[in-house]
Amino acid sequence: MEYMKEYLYETHMHTAEASKCATGTAAEMVRAYADLGYSGIIVTDHFFNGNTAIPRHLPWKERVELFCRGYENALEEGSRTGIHVFFGWEYAFYGTEFLTYGLDKEFVLGHPDMLDWSVEKYINTVHDHGGFVVHAHPYREAFYIPRIRLCPDLVDGVEVINGGHLNPLFDERAREYADKYNLLHLSGSDAHHTDFIAGCGIAFEQEIRAISDFIEAIKGRTGYRLLPGLYRSEL
Fold first, then answer.
1. Residue 228 to residues 103, 128, 189: CA-CA distances in angstroms?
2. How far apart are CA 210 and CA 226, in angstroms?
3. Potential cystine with 44: which of 39, 88, 133, 183 (Cβ 3.0-4.6 Å)?
4. Do the bridges between strand 84-93 and strand 96-101 make them parallel or antiparallel, or are there none, so unpaired?
5. Do residues 157 and 184 make contact, with C-beta atoms less than 8 angstroms apart?
């Protein structure tokens, strides 16, 4: 049987430059993913309304510049290692978190009031600018999540596999939720440290060279499979 090459992409990871809970620098994380055979990563650092490493008292422009260093440092290291690096972020609303893909630094710079938006306004504005929103680990139970909030009429997809928690029930519920509302399925390691990358993400049949290609491939629902991670069997 002829072997079909797959291209592995991480959809959910953090850097020490911008995420307070991360220990791996952007360059260290890129090298770790390269060692694991990944073709690309999407840097999704915690935004200012999440567990950010960026001081909250700084002017908006300065905060954005500091926030983007994780991605920019990863991009620089990716050019040396041959890893594709794309920009995203993890937006939070009182513990409910959304992976945001397809937009850039200019979008963030141009919306200094976005921390005051409702979830509806945030997701609708992201969509108006061509972005793509995935509900991260929607059924996770943790100290920082006061209650579970679902918005199936707003998001594009659901993270049905998350390597950041080990309770399989969280992922099972997420998959049931996504299926009930015909939402797209995604998998992500939720990695914060070089010594614990869960091996989740998405394996594509074709190389993904731009974030727009990633979004279109996911929307097409074919030509890829979800990676279950190193520590569990595929759901």
1. 27, 32, 9
2. 19
3. 88
4. antiparallel
5. yes
Q: Which pLDDT belongs to residue 229?
A: 86
- For 234, the token pair is 């595929």
Q: Both ends of the chain: CA-CA distance in Å?
A: 25
Q: CB neighbours of 173 closer than 8 A, spacing ≥ 6?
A: 138, 139
Check: pTM over 0.85? Answer yes or no. Answer: yes
Angle between helices 69-81 and 26-35 (to 10 degrees): 40
Distance CA 199, CA 227 (A): 7
Distance of alpha carbon 121 from alpha carbon 119, whole angstroms: 6
3-state secondary structure of 11: strand
At residue 199's C-alpha, the angle toward residues 195 and 202, to 5°, is 145
Q: What are phi and psi of 26, to 5 degrees?
A: -55, -45
Distances (CA, A) of 148 to 10, 174, 207: 25, 11, 35
Packing angle between helix 60-67 and helix 69-81, nearest 10 degrees?
30
Residue 182 CA to residue 177 CA, distance in Å, equals: 8
Which residue's structure tokens are 């300065």? 62
Distance, CA of 17 to CA of 231 (rounded, Å):
27
pLDDT digits (tens, 9 = 90+) for 177-209: 999 999 999 999 999 999 999 999 999 999 999
**Residue of 144, 153, 143, 141 lying closest to 177 (CA atoms):** 153
Grouping H, G, I as helix, E, B as strand and the rest as coil, residue 205 is: coil
